[in-house]
Amino acid sequence: MPESRRWLVDGNNVMGSRPDGWWRDRDAAGRRLVGEIEAWAQRTGEPVAVLFDGAPFDVDAERVEVAWASRRGRDAADDDIAARAEADPDAASLTVVTSDARLAARVRAAGAAVEGAGAFLARLRGSQRRPS
Q: What is the pLDDT of residues 72-117, one digit of tens each?
C-alpha cells in the first residue's frame, strides 16, 4: 500500500455496519460518524472524504470533506465513489472504505485499495486510545 494514503468513505455503508440505532435518526448518525472521522483525521493528518446517500444535513467538519450523492436512488453514492476512483490519476494512493462487494470490485479495478467498514471503525477506535 502506498505510504501517502487518502481515504474515501462510503458513509451509509459504514454507518449501517454497526447496530447502534442509526436508523432512528440518520442525520445524527451521520454527524456522529463524521465527528469520529474528523477526530481521527486530525490526529493522523490523513486526508478523508465521506460520501453519503440521501438529503444533505448540517455537519461540522474542518478536515473531512463531506459530500452527498449527485442523484437519488439505488447505488447513487456507490456510483459517485466509483467515478471518483476511476477519475483519480493517483488511485493507487486511495483507500475506499466499504463492505459493499460490488463497489469494492469497481474501485479495485480503478486501482484503489479497499478497507472494510469494520476494520475502519476499529482503526478509528484504536486511534482514540490514550497511553496509560
A: 998 999 999 999 999 999 999 999 999 999 999 999 999 999 999 9
CA distance 75 to 66: 18
DSSP-assigned letter for residue 13: H
Q: Among 105, 76, 108, 74, which Cα is nearest to 94's?
A: 108
- Spell out the domains of the chain, with CATH numbers in brackets: 6-128 (3.40.50)
Taking Cα atoms as reference points, which of 86, 30, 87, 84 lies closest to residue 61?
A: 30
pLDDT in tens, 20-52: 888 889 999 999 999 999 999 999 999 999 999
Instruction: Confirm if 9 and 103 have CB atoms less than 8 A apart.
Output: no
- Supply the pTM of this predicted model: 0.91
Cα→Cα distances 109→6, 32, 41, 82, Å: 17, 31, 26, 9
Contact between 32 and 64 (Cβ < 8 Å): no
